Amino acid sequence: MIIPSTNNYPLRILKQAGVNTVRLRLWHTPKFNSPSSFRNVEILCKEIRSLKLNTFLTIHYSDTWADPSHQNKPNLWNKLTRPILLDSVHRYSFTIGNLLKPDYIEIGNEINNGLLWPDGSINNFDYFRRILKTAISAIRKSSPKSKIILHYSGLNGSFYFFKKLESLDFDIIGISYYPKWHTKDLDIVALHCYKLASTYKKPIILSETSYPYTLNNLDSTPNSVDKPSDLIQDFPATPEGQARFLNVLSQITEFLPTNSGYCYWGGEWLKDVEVDQIPKSMWDNQTLWDSKGVFLPIIREFKH
Question: Quick one: which of 95, 54, 93, 60 has its CA closest to 74?
Fold first, then answer.
């Protein structure tokens, strides 16, 4: 998450490097003045558009991080009945679409197991689907030009997931891909994405991906990727290995049967930087800049 600035400097240098889209996360009511608050996201959207870049907004439908293991409701919605919760989802989604008009918008973040737990858990599939349908309807009304994305983390189970949701009115399949947690075989990634795109006739966006340029820990917080066993064979944790990883992903998305792309996650999360209430960084060895703030070779891969 890039914090709003007065000179757009981070955004300007990313644009010069070839980045054309910036992904932002939105939390409902964060406890602190988070970069993910509506006010800061609104400011960022204006900065991004001023540079003629695309906005890619992920609505977490939570006050904090949402992922396959965490999909807590906003505190303000905790005691709502299911009909009123659906109405709140519609009103909130409509407001976001109407005010921000993002080019791309994800209905939830990594929703493998549902969202707005416990009501919207994947175990309550019919209601989970109603939540998605309600949010999609609100976005279609308030921001009809926005491309709607449903975002799944990983490859395993994704065919079954999108099969059950294929009748919904969405535009793009979003996939998180991290070698440590998903697969270290890039051929499998390519084949899986090709089959997804061919089966559901939708573009694929790798909504999140990253790779380390070093295994060294650069601050006092343990790194999320820190062992040789986390790496892909022949892709060392070096600046060149990191760049080659993104080069291959660029080729994979370029040759899919539908227009596709990727977003690099945590590229700005340098050491000693606090991001959304988390001090230091678990991602400082996977960034686009080195520990001295100098761009790494990976930046040239965005030209693809």
Answer: 60
- The first and second tokens of residue 16, run together, are 């010069």
Rounded Cα–Cα distance for residues 119 and 142 (Å): 25
In the annotation, is 106 catalytic? no
275 confidence band (pLDDT: 50, 70, 90): low
> What angle, 0 to 180 degrees and rounded to 10, lies between the N-to-C axes of helices 82-100 and 38-50?
30
The Cα 237–Cα 285 span in angstroms is 9
Tell me the residue type at 182: H
Residue 254 annotated to the active site: no
Cα maximum dimension of the chain: 53
Give the containing element (helix H, strand E) for 214.
Answer: none
108-165 confidence digits (pLDDT tens) = 999 999 999 999 999 999 999 999 999 999 999 999 999 999 999 999 999 999 999 9
The residue from 208, 254, 274, 301 that is catalytic is: 208
> Out of 42, 110, 240, 254, which one is annotated catalytic?
110
Any idea what DSSP says for residue 235? Answer: -
* Separation CA 224–CA 197 (nearest Å): 30
